[in-house]
Amino acid sequence: MASIHRIMVIDTRAHLSDLVRAAMSMLGRRYAIYEVPSAESALDEVARVEFDLVVAAYTLDGTMNGLEFAKRAIRERAGVAIVIVAAENDPMIDADQLEELPIQFMHYPPGEKFVRALRVGLDGADVVEASEGIVEVDLGPIPTLDVDKARTILVNTMREVGAIGGLIADRTGRVVVDERTGYIDKSLIAGVLGPTFAHAPKIAPQIGGQGWSLKFYDGNRYDLFALSLGYHYFAAFLFDDNKSGVFGAMTRFGRLGADAIIKLLGDSAWTFEQPAPVPVPTSPTAPRPGSRPPK
Question: Distance between CA 37 and CA 61 in Å, rounded?
């Protein structure tokens, strides 16, 4: 039986736990997540427990940031695998500042880069690089979506096509609108589908510009349709497997609904940019009193 990976997550906003669950399910790994409320508590746990992986936000509880936590965690337990994820409004970290720190760092939204980071942390970089790696796609920040208006459009479209559930998620797999999706694991569905839509900009030049895509999954109990909403979001609709005429309804009304949500995003639905890194001031960290040796 495959071992259960022990993963500690430190994030006051709780976004990373959902990302970890979706990514681990996508990888087909058995795992147990330990959510820790503060950086100091996390340091205690690192000293006490041997985790397979630690995933932390860059902005923590005010006592230290993610990089400062990583430095102290490595002193507590050398060799611990750490992934740090910065929020969209956190500053970019210059590569020179990370050269001597054996961690993986990325800005939110991490997308497929995050899935690969978990594999590297759990299996080792050599193993991942030797295997068929996941192609990383970085489209920069995700544009803001008017969630209330998007929800109204989603519900109306569900009614027109006869869907029993629906959701809107961004390309990293973060669900932003959820309507009656209790039948399925929405985090898993969004986590698997989101990165696949991130490849659309590569296809667009081959087909003459902005492309509209439809994905279909035929199950024994349910059918799932997913529609692109530009480059950064997608909508998914769930149907009873025995419902007929769904393809026609999705092609007509589903596309109209998708176009309406794309209109909310405006030009940002089809544009992307790479954020430029800016230096982050560093502050000295004192050794934590009363630290315990690794067991």
Answer: 8
For residue 115, the model assigns a pLDDT of 83
Torsion sign, CA atoms 242, 248, 253, 256: positive
CB 21 within 8 A of CB 33: yes
Q: Which fold has domain 147-270?
A: Beta-Lactamase (3.30.450)
**Is 210 exposed, middle or buried, given 0-12, 13-18 or 19+ CB atoms closer than 10 A?**
middle
CA 120 → CA 69, 114, 130, 187, 197, distances in Å? 20, 10, 11, 22, 23
Which residue type is seen at 226? Answer: A
Alpha-carbon separation of residue 155 from 144, 239, 246, 272 (angstroms): 20, 14, 16, 28
Neighbouring CB atoms inside 10 A of 78's CB total 9
pLDDT digits 0-9 by tens, 40-82 = 999 999 999 999 999 999 888 777 888 889 999 998 888 899 9
- How far out from the chain centre does Cα 137 lie? 12
Report d(CA 222, CA 98) in Å as an integer. Answer: 46
Full-prediction pTM beyond 0.70?
Answer: no
* 156 has a pLDDT exceeding 70: yes
Q: 84-96 in b/e burial notation, b at 16+ Cβ within 10 A?
A: bbbeeebeebeee
Domain ranges of the chain: 5-130, 147-270
3-state secondary structure of 87: coil
Q: Classify domain 5-130 at the CATH topology level.
A: Rossmann fold (3.40.50)
Beta bridge partners of 235: 168, 227
